[in-house]
Amino acid sequence: MRKNIFCKTTALLTMAAMLLMTGCGNGSDGAGAASSGSSAVSDNGEVSESTNEKSENAGTQLANPWRDATEEEVGYITESYFKIPEGATNVVCSTMDIEGSEYHLYQVTFDLDGNNFTARVEYGAEEYADISGMNYEWTSTDEGKLAGWGGGNMEAKFYRYVGDECADLCTWYDIEIGIAYSLSTVAKDLDGFDIQAVAEAMYPGDTVLLDDFVQQAAQKETFESFDEVISYLTEGQGYAYLKVIGHEGDVLAVTDYVYKNDDKTNASIGATLYGEVNGEIRSLGYVGSAGTGYPLAASDGLIYGCNPHSYEVYFFNPEGTGVMLKDNISEIYDEAGNASYSGITRKTNNFDDTVEFTGGEAEYNKYWENYFNAEVINFTVVK
C-alpha cells in the first residue's frame, strides 16, 4: 500500500484491549477462527454476502469489534497486503476500527493443508508491534528472514507454544513503509510444521493497486510523462519536482492537500512520489508527516517526514524503484513520563548499512536539527 499514517500509542493500547476482550481458548484471541459477520472470498475470488449471527446471550456479551470487510477492502487485503496461498479455502476477510484513526486492522482467515490460519496487517503500526492478539507463554522463539518480502531482507520473528494445544506465530514489520504483519495457527499438533513457508507463500509481489488519488483519477498505474500525471490533478492539489538520493532523474511529488505554512510556502504533510522506471512514470511510494506543524521538507537529496515523537527521513532503495527509510527514530514515554529512544539509521541506501540507534535525548535532538535546517517543500498549487 502507498498510504501513510502514524498511529498513536493510545490507539494501539486500545486496539490491544479490544483484542483481549475477544480472547478465547488457551491464550488465543481466536486465531484460526473467523469472526461472525465477515466477508468471504470464494475460490474464484468473488466476495460473498454473510450474516451476523447473534448469541442468545448477546445482551451480556461484549460487542464484537470486527466487521465485514467491504468489497473494496477485500481487494486491498488480498491483492496488496497478502496473497492468498494456492490451495487455500474458506477465505474470510474482516476489519476492525482503530480508535482515533481513519484506518483499520485487517484480518484474513483461511484453511490450508488441514490447518486454519489467521493473518493480520496494520499500516502505521508501531515498530515491530505484535498485532496477533495471541497471549501465550511461548515455548520457543526464533528469528529469520522471509523470502520474497523486502527482496528477501524482511526480518521475521517466530514463536511456538507446545501444550494441550499448540500455536505457531510469525510476525514481521516492513520498516520501509511502516506495516506490521502477523500469521498464526492453532492446532493439536504442529510437529514438523513450518509457518515460515506459509508466510513466504503470502508475499503479494510488487503489484501497485490504484490506491493513489492520481491513479484513481486516471484508472491506471503508469503514465507517459510527469505532465500527464499533473494533468489529473484538480484545483487545490499540488506538485513539486525534487532530486532524491537513489533515483536517477527528477522525482515528482504530488499531493491532494496543500496549506499555507508559517513561512508562506504551499506546504503539505503527505505526498506520493513519481519517477521513471523502465521508461514509464509510476508511483515510487508515499512520504508523510503528522500535523501541519511538521510539513514535508527536503535537503541534500533527502525527504523529511517527521512527527512530534518520530524522526523520519526518506530516500530510495538501491534500484531507485521504491521509497526507503534512511533514518527512523522514535521517542517513547513510559507511564512515569520517562523517555526512551529506539530506531534505525543508515548512511547509505544499502540494506546492509542499517545501524540500530542507541543514543539518548541529546543524540535524538541532534538528528532533529537536520529537519529544522531543511527547506519546506513548496508545492505548485493547481488553479
Can you give a write-up of this model?
The chain has helices spanning about 10-20, 70-80, 195-200, 215-220, 225-230, 360-375; strands at about 40, 45-50, 65-70, 90-95, 105-110, 115-125, 140-145, 155-160, 165-175, 180-185, 220-225, 240, 250-255, 260, 265, 270-275, 280-290, 295-300, 300-305, 310-315, 325-335, 340-345, 355, 375, 380. It is mainly β. The strands form four sheets. Strands 1, 2, 3, 4, 5, 6, 7, 8, 9 and 10 form a ten-stranded antiparallel sheet that branches. A hairpin with a 3-residue loop joins β8 (about 155-160) and β9 (about 165-175). The chain is globular. The two termini are about 30 Å apart.
Describe what is shown at a glance.
The chain has helices spanning 9-21, 71-81, 195-201, 213-218, 226-231, 361-373; strands spanning 39-41, 47-48, 66-68, 89-97, 104-112, 115-123, 140-146, 154-162, 166-174, 179-187, 222-223, 238-242, 251-255, 259-260, 266-267, 270-277, 280-288, 297-299, 302-304, 310-316, 323-333, 339-346, 354-356, 375-376, 380-381. It contains 6 helices and 25 strands.
